[in-house]
Design goal:
- This protein has a seven-stranded mixed β-sheet, with helices on both faces. The protein has a four-stranded antiparallel β-sheet with strand order 11-12-15-14, covered by helices on one side. It has a two-stranded parallel sheet with strand order 1-13.
- The protein contains 15 helices and 15 strands.
- α3 packs antiparallel against α11, α4 packs across α11 and α12 packs parallel to α15.
Amino acid sequence: MPCWTAVFLLAMTNNSTSDVLLPATIREQFACLREGGSQPPLVYLDSASTALKPDGVIAALTDYYRNMPANIHRGLYPMSEAATAAFEAARATVQKFINARESREIIFTSGATDAINLVARGFGDGLRAGDEVLITGLEHHANIVPWQLLRERRGIVLRVVAMDAQGDVPLDAFRAALNGRTRLVAFTAISNALGTELPVAEMIESAHAVGATTVVDAAQAVACRRVDVQKWNCDFLAFSGHKLFGPTGIGVLYAREALLQAMPPVKGGGDMILSVTFERTTYNELPHKFEAGTPPIAQAIGLGVATEWVTALGFDQIEAHERVLVDAALKQLEALPGVQIIGRPGKRRSIISFTLDGIHPHDVGTILGEDGVAIRAGHHCAQPAMEHFGIPATIRASFSVYNTLADVKALIVGLRRVQEIML
């Protein structure tokens, strides 16, 4: 039995306060949060950038490198076969996690960015000049730039549904932007810059009504809400492992099997072939057709463990816990003079962006960091969203399962200190 299977968590209790909702035993599974782990103690409020890694994920990586550090799919000796089994088990775990129909619909990539680029190449290059790709004003650069590159290659028309003054994308405006020329619709499930949650299922239904194919950027969604590709009825979906308490360098592209069968491979090399001559190549079956070369084996195994860890926590508990934290943080931020909350979406997840009057966000991030409070300051790879609000950058606090109300208090105390220093 792999050593990481014993490294899991206690059941959570659904109580009224954040610190009880997620017991201290969960924080104890994160080495950098354990008492004495850092000085000053770490208050980590940057999970929208990358989540911390629980002990079980780290144990899975270590187990691979210590006990089965072989390549996969081709070795006929026990260590290679064990690595292959663990790698493909991780694929099946991810399939179950997002409720895909088949494990062959799960393509391992280096991250959400790589996954979206794969769609832009494999599917997008089949579009014609004048075909329209529709995105929203909330998008991360990873869901903007690949379509601009596609426009340069294929002459497609890139259209944008603007957000409103609250940081929402109104469903009626989205529907109005769809037409008979819309071939592809790509949008985020949750904005990494504002925390806005979009009505994914309704948007997909509207896109399908005009015959468009859909791409969902679920990078911010997979760690805080259930993602069900069959319930959403999406065509493509991308996410990164490192935002899901998993390793860096691993991500997932989900795609309907029929789409994958029709798409040409984007990368060529080992393992994505059945036969090669100098005259022609016959490609491998799914999912290997899109996984050229040695894959991120340890990272995929670690991602599988991370999805099991999140599933064991339970999304109902995760959502309730994060709601307590976000509500408390919003209330306390609004009571602090000089704070301007950026974006007031109708449905917000675990991200709050704001500014401090007269103080640059980078200065805020630096001073808070000196006190062990880790936030993100900048444009968050969402410069068009910043431009919409007429600002260059924001301070972003993002909350996760290991945060407590004490972390919220530490943020507010730290912001007061910033004001004392800078004003």
